[in-house]
Each structure stands twice: as structure tokens, then as C-alpha cells.
Amino acid sequence: MFFELHSGGERAVLVQIAIDGGANEPDLGEFIELVRSAGGEPASVVRGSRRTPTAKYFVGQGKLDEIAEEVANAEAELVVFNHALSPSQERNLEAYLQCRVIARTGLILDIFAQRARTHEGKLQVELAQLKHVSTRLIRGWTHLERQKGGIGLRGPGETQLETDRRLLRARVSTIESRLDKVRQQRAQNRRARQRAEVPLVSLVGYTNAGKSTLFNTWSESGVYAADQLFATLDPTLARVEVEGLGGVIIADTVGFIADLPHTLVEAFRATLEETLNASLLIHVIDVAADDRAFLKTEVESVLEEIGAGDIPQLVVYNKIDLLEREPRITRDSDGTPDTVSVSAKTGEGLDLLRDAIGERLAGRFFTGCVEITPMQGKLRAALYELGAIQAEEWLDNGNSTLNLHLPDADWARLKQQHGI
């Protein structure tokens, strides 16, 4: 049940206003790409500056007339603001411009609605849309803002708007209940991974940084990847082998973006929990982007917002093939890997990435060779159950040597239980 905010191919006038002297002006190139990703056709761009937005139209009267002129000249069907608009501002702008007006949040929601593929992703998008649209119902129902009447409709004492809002609240409650079940299932899967001490490595980064391409190349998966914003909405997990660690779970997650709407952060809580429970975050950055330092800051800001700011990070500079750079690892003052330069498209540097991940996570594992007697059969069985025995060799005296690799916590527990 998606709300179709607009269909593809519509001519659109784009509006971007620098507020407070342009100190925090959004990226115009990204804005144009967002409109194209939604299927719109940017006809013209109206730019300006204001100290503060106006309460009625967001822009001043002069700029409003300029937008109206551009709409007429381009025969545009849609005006898109690269800002957050209140419901009353959208309503006033539509009445003045005589065409549909949507804000940045509505635009991103529309892209998400097109990209969602799994049942969970569609539920999350619908939840965000419902919460966004519920405050804007009056735009389409002003002619019904009265109590029902007529044959068969007398008696409820409820306006059409009240009915719609009540139905929306019921639908929101249903979706939240379903997402709670998804969340519980994820929590159960996470507990199983934690019992087995399988590390979770989560790919995070700005949208279109190349996370899904890296995921596919590394795990030999077929996750949808494209050179477009928000190609991935649904979290995907895969198990890969890392030398010295054994099995590691990697998670491909939704990309972040500047001014990510809070409704999306809330709706995608189940997805973002894969990030919150990661042992290590792989922060993928498009090294060819001119504003990569700003994009890095924006991602770190969102990670702080969702409570993942304290999780260890390994920065991966992707797309080195576009700059003809060589893959490399850099280390901090303690010798710990902190950045890796790779090309997810060509696979260059992925061996360095595996090594860096192995080093970052190796401290959590015990690796060594132990000798056990036939009387320690329960210990041997427990080690096999954990998948900790990499090789076993029998000795002439009836003992055996085991090459072990298992989490420190499990090894400490087994030593205590079996009196080693």
C-alpha cells in the first residue's frame, strides 16, 4: 500500500534556498540526482538566499513569483524543494503555483517506495509514508472536511478527515506490530550468532558509495547494485571466510544521506539494528567524490544519531580505479589498520581489506595448539560443537593435538568447566 507521490517522467522545477547566508546550503548536484532517481525530469533550478524562511511560503514574494514564472515557462507539473516544508507551506505553495509541491522528505520517501523489494522493506517504507502523509491529508480532502450525511451515512458524527486519520492510525499500528515481529526474529538470529561468537561486520556509508558492489564482490552474492541513490534498502547478510578468524558475517545496509528524515530513521530501526550490533563497521567512502570529507562527517553524524557512534570503524576508500590509485593500508600510531584503499568494482585491494579486518578482530580470539587425553572426550566434543577445531592429529600415546581457533570468551569458559 504505497502512496504514489508522483509518477516518473514529470517535468519538475527545483528550488534550493541558501538559509542564513548559505552556511549550510545543501548539495545541488545531489538534489538533482535525487529528482532523477525518483523518475523526475529537472526542467529548471531556482536558487536564492534568505536569512530565515517565511512562515507562509518558505520563500519571499519575489522568489515565489520567479518560481511561478519558471513553472509556466517549463510547463512543469511538479515543484520540488530541497528543504523540509510544513504541511501548511506545501498547501499554500500548491494553491499559489497551481501544481503539486513536495519537499525533500517526500522526494526521498518516493525513491524508497520505488526501491523497496522485500516484504520488510516495503513495510518500513509504508510506515514512513503513512506517518509523513498523515499530517498532509487535508491537501486532498478539503472538499470532505465536513460530517458525513445522506442516505446510509447519517449518524456517525465523524468527518471524512477523521475517518481517514483513524484508518491511518490503525494501519500504522498493524505495520508496527509486524515490524516488531521482524525485530524479534532479528534479535533471535543475533543471539544465535553471539552464542557462536561469529563476528558481524556491517557496511555503512553515504548512499552510492559502493557498499553493495563491495558486498557482491567480496561475498560472491547477487545483491542489486547500481550507480544510483538508494539502490539498497533491504539489509542482506552473507558469511565469508577471513584468514585467522574463520567465518565472519557481513551485512549490507541502507545508505545514509544528508538531512535523513527522522521518519525514515525511525521506520528503518529494524534494519539499522544490524549496524548497532556490529563488531566492526566498515565505513565505505567514495574516494572520487569532491566532497568526501563532508560525506564522511554526515555518515558519522547519522551513526551518532542511531547510537552507533562508539562502534569501532575501519574506513574503506572505494573507487580507486577512477583515480588510478594503488590499493594500500594505512595504520594509526599503534600500528592498527585504520584505512584501506580498494576498488570494489575490480576487486583490487580486497585481500588487504580481509587482512585489515582480521587484524582488527583478531584480539577477540584464541588461536593455538593443545594436547588432550582420552579422558577429556567431553572437552573435545564441546570444541567440535563450537567448530573450533581446525585440525586434529592423534599421537602414539593415545592423546591428540588440536589446532584451535575460537573466541576468547568461549575458551575461558571451557577451561573453567573442564579444569584445564
Fold topology:
Elements: E1 11-19, H1 28-37, E2 41-50, H2 61-74, E3 78-81, H3 87-97, E4 100-102, H4 104-115, H5 119-133, H6 138-141, H7 160-195, E5 200-205, H8 211-219, E6 236-242, E7 246-252, H9 262-267, H10 269-276, E8 280-286, H11 292-305, E9 313-318, E10 328-331, E11 337-341, H12 350-361, E12 365-372, H13 377-385, E13 389-394, E14 400-407, H14 408-418
Parallel strand pairs: 1-2, 1-3, 3-4, 5-7, 5-8, 8-9, 9-11
Antiparallel strand pairs: 6-7, 10-11, 12-14, 13-14
End-to-end separation in angstroms reads: 60 Å
List the secondary-structure elements in sequence, H or E. EHEHEHEHHHHEHEEHHEHEEEHEHEEH
> In one word, what is the shape?
elongated
Question: Cα-atom Rg, whole angstroms?
Answer: 27 Å
Secondary structural class: alpha/beta
- Catalogue the unreliable spans: 1-8, 139-158
The total count of helices amounts to: 14
Can you give a write-up of this model?
There is one protein chain. The chain is an alpha/beta fold. 41% of the residues lie in helices and 21% in strands. The chain has 14 helices and 14 strands. It has helices at 28-37, 61-74, 87-97, 104-115, 119-133, 138-141, 160-195, 211-219, 262-267, 269-276, 292-305, 350-361, 377-385, 408-418, and strands at residues 11-19, 41-50, 78-81, 100-102, 200-205, 236-242, 246-252, 280-286, 313-318, 328-331, 337-341, 365-372, 389-394, 400-407. Strand 13 (389-394) and strand 14 (400-407) form a beta hairpin. Helix 4 (104-115) packs antiparallel against helix 5 and helix 5 (119-133) packs antiparallel against helix 7 (160-195). The chain is elongated and about 95 Å long.
